[in-house]
Specification:
CATH superfamily of the largest domain: Glycosidases
Strand content: 15-25%
Number of helices: 21
CATH class of the largest domain: Alpha Beta
Structural class: alpha/beta
Number of strands: 22
Mean pLDDT: 89
Length: about 600
């Protein structure tokens, strides 16, 4: 009898562990540092959130290890990513039959293929939910979401919260709505067999940091807790009229991939949010002008006729840095461009402004091979580890920008790189011949195995590394190789201009292997890189700490937009704290008007 009692206790403990585990499957293979906002509400609700980055597909082992799965949709065919397969759908079928929870989060900025696959699968389950809005990414709406009063999801709040971009959800029954945006559902659920299906956008599930009032987080935590309470699902409409799954005629062909028994050995899951490292970090040394005033940067486009106007705005707004995007043809070292930069340097010399000439990473000509994406196709950016690209494009561009001050090098505060566009392309690439050779060498495999893998054509390189569990080590090797080359280039540039700083501008936090390698290589404790990101308000200190753990030393600036919050003085205490406590200052994008300049001056006093 005692043995039976112990067996029952162990069985109950095992069931409880499974009920507390949640698996995140992200078809974009996103870096963990960009998923922590999405994972945080589920962690707060009592889930152990596990993320298997380098095997973004479901296995039969997942059915017994996890109670809940969060599927973050990919961006095919508009952008580079992996995509749902027939094998994934087969596992999801079993998931809901085993009283599991399936949370489907579609991509709102692209991803017509996965949205279509999700809709087909929902229809086959009779779920009564469909993602509307068509297949065009431009139709996603930026809106606020309001928890539905008296819905099956109780204690989720009543106030609207910023929910990012969403497509309207078409539902069969009103009681399936958990939150609405305008007159349409944006979060909906359905009971299927003994399981539960929840549908929302990736943007909405990552909206906690976008709402300083905490309303988005309250809703998301309530939603996560609710998925753990099957007794409270009764108010949700049950699935009716299931149908055969139809996967013909979509935006692209759906891959036929049998689900494996378990993920490959090299694709282990990690826990999110990741624990904070207890190791003592090297202190970051900020320049004196940042210590005194913080970064106060205007990001704009360079034209010589508009320079005086820009300098006037910088003076009115009491800014201390000007970053100007320079056309790539103007970076060529010719007699005419030297005259142009001499005139610009003379005008900047009369001010105390630090100038950051900038160039777009995507606009720098490759001078060699192009990058190859995970499908084996060429992309319009340079092969990241091609030697000709570094010698004939990156190095000359940086050298010219760091010397644009001519006889007055003190006007150059640093050089900036605009990462937008290129980051998206590098995120789904890394399989050109130069990359592939370096990545395979970094894996530490035997000579025969390396030779077999090296003989593979580009079209199967990604899938082969994925299925063998080698993808994580491969990307790590690429990032390290980029960092090593960037260190050499940084040392050369600092010999030319000892005080030069390196800044990076982007809409999203850099998280692909190429730009992370650049950040690692160009940064050091005594000369941290400057990050000008369009990040959500708040979280700057946490992002910088995560970068520090990855070997990136950085100072971040908060992107201020000339919206009503900036003109409302009641918002200024919160914005000041975010800019000068959570971040090391702020930056503005264009919009150089006198009225805005006066508002900024008052804001910074």
């Amino acid at each position: 009898m005692r043995s039976l009692y112990l067996f029952l206790l162990l069985l109950v403990a095992a069931c409880q562990t499974e009920a507390h585990r949640l698996l995140v499957v992200d078809l974009t293979l996103a870096d963990p540092l960009t998923l922590e906002t999405t994972a945080a509400p589920w962690h707060a609700a009592g889930y152990r959130v596990e993320y298997r980055r380098f095997y973004p597909h479901l296995t039969r082992e997942d059915l017994t290890r996890y109670r809940t799965v969060l599927v973050l949709g990919g961006r095919q065919p508009e952008s580079l990513s992996d995509a749902l397969t027939i094998g994934d759908l087969a596992i999801l079928n079993e998931w809901v039959r085993r009283d599991g929870v399936v949370v489907l989060a579609y991509a709102e900025d692209a991803g017509a293929l996965d949205r279509w696959i999700i809709n087909q699968w929902l229809a086959s389950q009779g779920a009564g939910i469909a993602i509307g809005g068509g297949s065009g990414p431009s139709r996603a709406q930026l809106l606020d979401a309001t928890p539905l009063p008296h819905s099956a999801l109780d204690n989720a709040g009543f106030a609207a919260f910023p929910a990012g971009r969403n497509y309207p959800l078409q539902i069969r029954d009103k009681n399936q709505t958990l939150a609405r945006g305008g007159s349409s559902a944006v979060v909906a659920a359905s009971r299927v067999n003994d399981g539960l299906i929840v549908v929302a956008s990736r943007s909405l599930l990552a909206s906690a940091d976008a709402d300083p009032g905490g309303r988005a987080r309250d809703f998301l935590v309530a939603l996560a807790r609710w998925t753990r309470r099957p007794a409270e699902w009764a108010g949700i409409g049950a699935a009716t009229r299931p149908a055969l799954l139809q996967l013909a005629g979509g935006p692209a062909q759906v891959a036929v991939h049998a689900p494996p028994r378990a993920p490959p050995a090299g694709a282990a899951a990690i826990v999110l949010p990741q624990p904070v490292s207890a190791a003592r970090a090297d202190p970051v040394v900020a320049p004196g002008w940042i210590n005194r005033q913080g970064m106060r940067v205007l990001w704009s486009r360079f034209t010589l006729p508009a320079l005086d106007s820009l300098l006037g705005f910088v003076e009115v707004a009491a800014l201390n840095a000007l970053a100007t995007r320079i056309p790539e043809q103007a970076i060529l070292d010719t007699a005419s461009t030297r005259t142009l930069w001499k005139i610009a340097a003379d005008r900047l010399q009369a001010t105390s402004i630090r100038w950051f000439p900038a160039v777009s990473l995507a606009a720098i000509p490759s001078q060699g091979a192009d990058e190859v994406d995970l499908h084996g196709k060429l992309t319009p950016v340079a092969c990241g580890l091609d030697s000709l690209y570094w010698r004939g494009a990156l190095r000359p561009s940086y050298r010219v920008m760091s010397r644009l001050g001519g006889a007055r090098p003190e006007v150059i505060g640093g050089v900036a790189l605009d990462l937008d566009s290129a980051m998206t392309l590098y995120r789904g690439s890394g399989f050109c011949d130069a990359d592939y050779s370096v990545g395979l060498t970094s894996l530490g495999l035997g000579r025969d195995e390396v030779e077999r893998l090296a003989a593979l054509p580009p079209v199967v390189r990604y899938d082969t590394l994925l299925e063998r569990g080698l993808l994580g080590g491969y990307y790590e090797g690429l990032e390290t190789a980029v960092a090593e080359r960037a260190i050499v280039l940084r040392s050369e540039l600092r010999r030319l201009h000892p005080d030069v700083r390196f800044a990076f501008h982007a809409s999203d936090a850099p998280a692909d292997w190429f730009t992370l390698g650049l950040l690692r290589g160009f940064s050091s404790p005594d000369a941290p890189v400057l990050l000008w990101l369009k990040e959500r308000r708040g979280g700057g200190r946490a992002l910088v700490r995560r970068y520090r753990e990855r070997g990136v030393y950085a100072l971040s600036a908060l992107g201020l937009e000339p919206d009503r919050a900036l003109f409302a003085q009641s918002e200024w205490p919160r914005l000041r704290f975010a800019a000068f406590s959570d971040h090391a200052g702020f930056w503005l994008d264009g919009a150089a008007t006198d009225s805005l300049g006066r508002v900024i001056r008052r804001f910074t006093k």
